[in-house]
Amino acid sequence: MGFELGLQRPALKHKIGVNPANVSGLIARYKIQKSGKSRPRSGRPCYLKKHDLQKVFALINKNLFISNNCLRVEASLIYYIRILIRELV
Known about the structure:
Blueprint: H1 9-16, H2 20-33, H3 50-62, H4 68-74, H5 81-88
Helix pairs in contact: 1-2
C-alpha cells in the first residue's frame, strides 16, 4: 500500500481519489488486517441462493395465496418451511 512507501495521507488522497478520513480508515484497517478488503461477514450464511429466491418470488407473484408446501415443491427447494419463512421475512 502507498503508506508503506512513505506517502503521506494527502498524497494518498489524491492518488486513490478519496477523502482523507477514508484514507486514515484504510490505513488503520490495513495495519490490523494486512489488507484493505472487508472481512467476511459474521453470522449465519443465507440458505437460499439468488436463483432460488427468484423462483420463489416468481411463484408468489403468479399466485399470492400459494401455500408454503406448494411453494417449496414447485420451486424444487430442499429446505424446511421454517428456513424458507426465515429467509423471506
